[in-house]
Amino acid sequence: MGEVLSLIRAPAIAFFGGFLVVGGWIWAPQISSYLPGFSSSASSVGSGGSWFADSNRLGRPETAPVVRTCIFRVIDFGPDARKIEPSAGYFMLKAGSMSASVVSMVGKPNARAENQSAFMAAKWGELAGCIYAQDDRELCDPDSRAAMVEATTKFFAFAKQAQASNPPISAGEARVLENIGDRLLNALKNHRRYGTLVASDFSTFAPSEIKNVMREETQTRDICKR
Amino acid sequence: MYLLKRVAFVVGGIFLGINLLNYFVLGHTGDYLPGGERMGEWKSAKIREACYPALEFIERDGQLPKLSTDRHRVDWRDLTRTQEMTAALNCYLVTHPNAVCERNNRAYIVDSINRYFAKFDEMMEIAKRYGDAEISTVKNLWDSPRNRAINAALMRDTSSGRLIKADFGWTMPTAMKSMLDQYKGTADNCPKA
Q1: Interface confidence (ipTM) of the complex
Q2: In a domain, A120, yes or no
Q3: B2 → chain A, closest CA residue
Q4: Which of A14, A42, A198, B185 is 20 to 30 A from A97 via CA?
């Protein structure tokens, strides 16, 4: 018995290792569609959705109705905007975020890279602001909720990246980001109270501003309950 | 004997791993279609290159799938893929109706049919999460004049024995099953070379 075990041990370990690598490669994209924390990008700022969030709570942000309403207010595609699907617009914003994160991670510190972080923070902030301005019950939709989580998380992550930059961003830019941040935190508090958002919607690595709101505020009602 | 068994395990693991990578990662699903007299090498299919022009200006083809409403949950990547697959299959089956008679082309076309129906099934699965309105949107999307022409061509090719159950093997799409069963045993009417 021991001989048989020793005979198959090494190949079995090799096969299991290979299976994990191959299986991980194959199934990871499918798993990620259920775990929005993974779904957005491998960027340093991630999407912000929790890996452990209920899949009924967080859907696909790119197809959210609120994204349809808001994305073209954030990104100007000019006269071609009508030909572009909102989910493609959202994808472009995410692609821009990935590029900004990569530049910030691997590039030399320079004003251009930092401007890009501030620019992305402003864009995600505008999107989040527009989403929060919609009817509160709109955000009971899992796709819209996922968009709200992603936009808010990315705003704070990029804002932090921009504020910690060297050379520093201008005072004017810093003030703009601060104002957006204040507005978003207020909206976040409301949605925490309404039950539209719960702590588990955000990932463990969510920016501290969000985690503080989720911890300090309590839910007073559930506007999504019918 | 001991060494041989060990080698067999390792070689088996490598073989399986390579095939898993080939099928799922590289997407060469055509390699796993049944072989034989009727089915050739999908990579050598001439129809593939012959239909490249059909995919060049997809946006200009008004008969390709289009979304019937603005209120939908279809991702633009799925929409684009639907249009590309429809344009390609339309070219393979409708523009070049005899292409399927050639062995290599048949293998490539069978693989394309499998992918076409797999994409439809995948989009329907997503649509089910959003209810009847979304299901209807996806069904309408896949009911363009080009899709209908593809369905008619599939019916014609199965009824004339140009495509048979054995060509699909274990990969047969559910949508094709009844069609292929109905015309089981039909002789191939391909023009003889």
Answers
A1: 0.72
A2: yes
A3: A7
A4: A198
